[in-house]
Amino acid sequence: MNNKLLLFCGPSGSGKTTIVHHLLKKYPQLSFSVSATTRNKRTNESDGQDYYFMSVDEFKRRKENDEFIEWEEVYQNGYYGTLKSELQRIWRKDKVAIFDVDVEGGINIKKQYNDRLLAVFVMPPSMDELHHRLKARATETPDTFRARTEKSEHEMTYADKFDHVIINDKLEDALAAAEKLVDDFLSK
Question: In what order do the strands lie in the sheet with 164-167?
Answer without folding.
Answer: 30-32, 96-101, 5-9, 117-123, 164-167
